[in-house]
Amino acid sequence: MEVDTLKQGFPKVITDLPEADIQFRGVKGWIAQGESHQIVFFEVEPFAEVPEHSHDSPQWGIVVEGKMELTIGDETRVYEKGDEYFIPAYTKHSAKFLSKCRPIDFFGEKMRYKPKVR
Fold first, then answer.
1. pLDDT in tens, 12-41
2. Are 101 and 66 in contact (CB under 8 A)?
3. What would the pLDDT profile of 90-112 be if each residue is shown by its tens digit?
4. In what side-by-side order are the strands of the sheet with 49-53?
5. Which of 52, 90, 98, 113 gets the highest tally of CB atoms within 10 A of its CB?
6. pLDDT tens for each residue of 42-75
7. Which domains does the chain have, with CATH numbers?
8. What pLDDT score was predicted for residue 117?
9. Cα separation of 111 and 21, whole Å?
């Protein structure tokens, strides 16, 4: 039997993690917290956009499902399932989501996102 992972979303072991307090409409995430970094498992709706911004530390990510347009510095490209990306520290970047999307991102800073207060 084939499982439709996009409709299923992340498994309970992920969604039981602390939910990130994310201020972008249509973006939800769960935090795996490390000593000096975070890994965030995102679920993003196709209308969501993340405006241009930068971080003090590097970011690496992979698209688990879906499609997004990511601009890193002056380069814009579409990333799909299985594509990886790297954003160096202090590099401006932004994203538009072209379908429901599930990226996983590693942030090289301890508190990129705070846990949502329940």
1. 999 999 999 999 999 999 999 999 999 999
2. yes
3. 999 999 999 999 999 999 999 99
4. 49-53, 93-97, 67-72, 75-80
5. 113
6. 999 999 999 999 999 999 999 999 999 999 999 9
7. 24-107 (2.60.120.10)
8. 85
9. 11
Place of tokens 């499609």: 67
With 80 as the cut, is the pLDDT of residue 3 above it? no
| Rg from Cα positions in the chain | 14
Residue 23 to residue 29: CA distance in whole angstroms: 11
> What tokens were used for 62?
């992979």
Q: How far is CA 81 from CA 16, 31, 58, 67, 91, in A?
A: 24, 21, 21, 7, 23
Query: Could you tell me the two tokens for 22?
Result: 């994310």
